[in-house]
Amino acid sequence: MTYSEENYLKAIYHLSLSQKQGVSTNAIAALVESKASSVTDMVKKLAEKEWVKYQKYQGVLLTDKGLLAAKMIVRKHRLWEVFLVEKLDFSWDEVHDVAEELEHIQSEKLINKLDAFLGFPTEDPHGDPIPDKNGNITKIEKQLLSELEIGKSGICVGVKDSSSSFLQYLDKQQIALGSEIKIVAKESFDNSLTIAVNTKEILISNKIASNLFVKSK
Hints:
Elements: H1 3-16, H2 25-32, H3 36-48, E1 52-55, E2 59-62, H4 64-88, H5 95-102, H6 108-117, E3 143-144, E4 153-159, H7 164-172, E5 180-186, E6 193-197, E7 200-204, H8 206-209, E8 212-216
Antiparallel strand pairs: 1-2, 3-8, 4-5, 4-8, 5-6, 6-7
Helix pairs in contact: 1-2, 1-4, 2-3, 4-5
Protein name: Transcriptional regulator MntR
Function: In the presence of manganese, represses expression of mntH and mntS. Up-regulates expression of mntP.
InterPro entries: DtxR_MntR_Metal-Reg, Fe-transptr_FeoA-like, Fe_dep_repressor, Fe_dep_repressor_sf, FeoA_core_dom, HTH_DTXR, Iron_dep_repressor, WH-like_DNA-bd_sf
């Protein structure tokens, strides 16, 4: 499998997590930053290799073979992110681009040894689940901070937006995985929230709250 084919499989996998039907070629094009015509050509190649099922106007679906392959790419990416943060002291906003390159390493033996070396982690530095060597994923019970009621507290377990700018914003507010966050107040006008975190109260927008996952206490 080429690097490009791997990137397409991973993109289809991520898009399929939030869709019950086939993934559109336009959605894939937006995620991989390519023209729709180029996406259609690649999808046809993937279908010939039985990684996906594709019918015009009905979208793209991963086959069982394609789903496992996509999970293995995600597995490599997230294990490398853990390694970079825990062993090389990268910050969580620096690791994505480096892991994008490392995820294409083909050695299954290396990845399994990396998994064991790290103690078989189930989550990456952003709180996303890491598939095991068989493609199994441990489900994380979580909800968006914006859905938490006033007076309720939750533990930060992940982010929906893993962009560098968002993670750097969280660092400035001293919000990280494991932080306890309490909803102090909600503004009806714009749904902004006053939250208590690390013994201080701060005001955050609904957009911020809608990109933070928490686990109820």
